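cron nightly-structures :: item 1 of 1
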Amino acid sequence: MNSDRRRITGPTDAKTPQIGISSGKTPTPKKEKPQQTHGLRKFFLRSGLTKNANGLAYLEVGNTILEVSVYGPRPIRGSFIDRASFSVECKFLPYLTQPNEVIFNAGDKRNGRTGLTNIEQRISTYVETAFLPSICVEKYPKSTIDVFINVVAFDPTTGTLPNLISWVVNCAALAMVDSGIEIKDMVTAGHAKVDGNEVLLDLQLVEADQSSGTECAASFMRMQGNEMVAFWVESSGAEEVDETNLERLVGGCDEMSTEVRKNLNGYLLKIAREGDKEEEAVKEEGDAEMAEA
């Protein structure tokens, strides 16, 4: 019998391991972390990623990714106006499923569209309403300030429209600061839902969640007496929204808005310190060059 000498065979007394045969011990199941359904989530926020716009902010929170760019103040032609005009445009990427699009958009994504869908118009109107009181438009006559919001990623099975709106406002707040446009205060928003006797902040749905409740997104200017500049409320149940629930919703939105503002302030202070260090380093290099000369 001829043998294949091209193969490297093992020793004749080798034993084949018995793979897949149980040793009799029961494997310990891994403990899965419970899915967080409420409470302010961790988020990633950066500004100044590009120089194409006067101000730009990028936000990641859960499955949601947003990009907000601010252009202006830019001069406009035509009749003279004594204050700047302000406009907001929100767009989802064409492949994304928009929240509640069956209700508001009649299930039509309108791929390749030139205009805005009903949901995009609603978000744009809310953001414009929230930020217009904070901008010193009288400082920029015969000018325009334009805000463009791009929803890069969104999961409608876990996120709701009021929740998305609150994070859009928070991202736009940083973009507005990054643009250098003079504002009275930084606008931040919160999201809350009343489900029975419990107030849930930054609520995220699960696939099997069929519970009804009232949701709210509200925006505030903290330095202006904590003035509420915009308000959005939705109810998925048959119960009417009474005064008590409204107070609880606004209180929850105010709590989340305050926490987001603290994080934004910390981020802006960090950027300011880094800028001061760079200026000191440049100054030291200049002094050293002058001393050598």
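cron nightly-structures :: done
The chain has one domain: 43-287.
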